[in-house]
Bifunctional 2',3'-cyclic-nucleotide 2'-phosphodiesterase/3'-nucleotidase (Mesorhizobium salmacidum), 658 residues
Amino acid sequence: MSQLLHPVSRRGLLAGAAATGALIMLHPFSARAQANQAHLRIMETTDIHVNVLPYDYYADKANDTMGLSRTASLIDAVRKEAANSMLIDNGDLLQGNPMGDYIAYEKGLKEGDLHPIMKGMNLLGYECSTLGNHEFNYGLSFLDKVLAGANFPFVCANLIRGTELAANPRDDKLYLKPYIILDRKIKDGSGAEQPIRIGIIGFVPPQIMVWDLKNLEGNVKTRDIVEAAKAWVPQMKEEGADIVIALSHSGIDVKQGDMMENASFFVAGVEGIDAVFTGHQHLVFPGKKDFQALEGVDAQKGTLQGKPAVMGGFWGSHMGLIDLMLERDGSKWKVVSATSEARPIFERVDNKNKPIVPDDKRIIAALEQDHEATLAYVRRPVGKTSAPLYSYFALVADDPSVQIVNQAQSWYLKDILKSTQWKDVPMLSAAAPFKAGGRSGADYYTDVPVGDIAIKNVADLYLYPNTVRAVEITGAQVKEWLEMSAGIFKKIQAGKADQPLIDPEFPSYNFDVIDGVSYRIDLSQPPKYDSKGGVANAGSNRIVDLKFDGKPIDPAAKFIVATNNYRAGGGGNFPDINASKIIYEAPDTNRDVIVRYVISQGTINPTADGNWSFAPLPGASVVFETGVKAKDFIADVKSLRIEPAGEGEAGARYRILL
C-alpha cells in the first residue's frame, strides 16, 4: 500500500500558524496547483558530520551556526508551506567532530547499537540518504553497523563490492542498492490523492579509494559518477519512475574530466534526472557568494544545466529545498516548473550569529547521554603547553598550530624508522592549517591558551582521522610540493598598496608547510600550479632560498617527509606525490600521534620557528582577513611587518608590508 507523502491540510496550516504566532505562507506551487497538478517539496540535509547538536566540542561551547536539532525545527515549518513534502540526506554523516571519534574509537559500536546520528535522524522521517566520503573513515565494518540502525534506506550507484568493475555498470556487484523507487500518494490541486513513483539514486566521490585506501583497498572499488548515472537512470525510468532525484555527494565544477570529485554539474546533464541535491564542498547553492559566473550555472535561480539543484551548506547550517510543480500527463507525472532555495538556521546581526529556529527537543533528549560522554572524553587532559596554540596567522606566517603537528609527526616517524634502511635519510614533515577561517566562518580558528591540553585541543588542531604516512622524495620534489602550496597566494605587484593576498578558491588544508627546510615565497611570481594541481605557469618559481641544513637544497638528494594518508595517496594533486612514493604506512592516526607526543613531552613548546617567510617586495602591501582575536597574538608574529587594517567582511582585516 502506497504511503502518502507528508501532506499539509488547511487545519494543520492554521494550527501551525497559531502555535508559532506567525503567518505561514504556502509556496506558490501549492497555492495555484490545479486538479492535474501537484506540488512536491524535497528537503535536503547534507554534510552533517555528526553535528547533531548545536555544540562545538572543539571550543567546548554552544554554537548557533550548526546542529541537526536546529535544522529539524526548520523541517516542521518548511513542511507546512507545501502540499506534499519529503526529506532526504546527502551524506557525510559519521565523521567530523569529537562525538564521532568518541563513538568510533572509545565507546565502539556493537551489533544492534544505535549511532547518535541515527538516533537523531530516525526521529525526523527521512525517506533516503546516500554515502559521503567521510562515511569510510572508520572502516567498512563500522559503517555497516551504523547503517543497520537507520530506519530509512541508503543508496549508492558507484560503490562496488570487491575489486572488479563489470563491463556494464548495471552488472556491477554494488555495495548498496544503486537506487530506490518509492511508491507514494501525492495530493493534487483538488485535494485528491494520486499515485506517484519517485526514484532516488546516490553517488559518492570516487576519490574515497585514495582518501581511505587502507580501509577500502581489496574490499571495494569506485566507478565514475556520471558513467554510473547514465547507466542506471534509464533503468529507473524503465521501472516506472515518474521523477528521478539524484543524491550527489559531490560538488559543482564545470570543467569535465574522468572520475570527477565534483561532478554534480554533469549529473544534472544526464537525461532523465529531474533534480540534483549536492554537497561535499561545504558551500551554499543557490546564493549570492558561491559558484558565481560559471557557464551553465545559475546561482540565483539554483539551476545546473537548467535542472534545479541545491547545496545546503554544512553541519546543519542550511536546509536545501527544491520545489517541483508536477503535472499529470496521462498516467505519468512530469516536472513543469521548479524553484530552489538554501534556507539558513541562523543570521548575522551586529556581527554576531543569531539563531532563527530553536532546537528540536526530541533530538536533544535522545542524545543527552552521548553528549555528556563526549564532553567527558574531550575534556580529559593529556599534557601542558608552554606557549599558546592558535591559527589566526596560519596562512601568512609560520604558525604554532602547524608547528606542533610537524613536531609530533617527525618525533613519531624518526623512532619508527631508526632501525630501517631509511634511518640516515633526512626527515622533513609537512602539515597544513585546518582551521583558518575562510569558508567556515570568522570564528573557525584554533585558540588554545597556555596550560593544560585536553583531547578536545588535539582534535581542534587536527580535525580529520587521517593516518600517518612517510614518503621518500627528492629535493627537487620538495620544491614542487612547496610550489603547489604557494598557490594559495595571489600574484602581487611591487609598489601597489593593499592587494588581496589569499585566493579564496584554494583550500587551507592544501597549504602545506614543510618543516626541516627553510624557504621564502616570492609573491611577484604567478602561481606555478592552480588549486587543482594543474600547471598554470610552468616557468614560475615562487619558492626561493630553499635550504636544508643551512645550505641550498640538493635537487637530487633524498628526503623522507612525514605527512598523512590523504596527501601521500595523491589528495590535493600535488606534483609527484602519490602512493608510489610511500615507504611507510602507520597504523596510528595523526591525532593519536599528537596525543602521544604531548604525553611523552609532558609540556610542549609549540612556538613557531619561522622557517618560511615572504620575500621582500618594495612598495607593496597586501591585506587578508582573520579572526577578531588575532589582535591578542600579533606581537608573536616576528617574521612580518603587520598592522590592523579595519574590519573585514567576517572578522578582522590586517595589512602586511612586504
Notes: Residues 9-22 have pLDDT under 50 and may be disordered. The chain has 17 helices and 40 strands. The first strand starts at residue 3 and ends at 4. The CA atoms of residues 491 and 526 lie 5 Å apart.
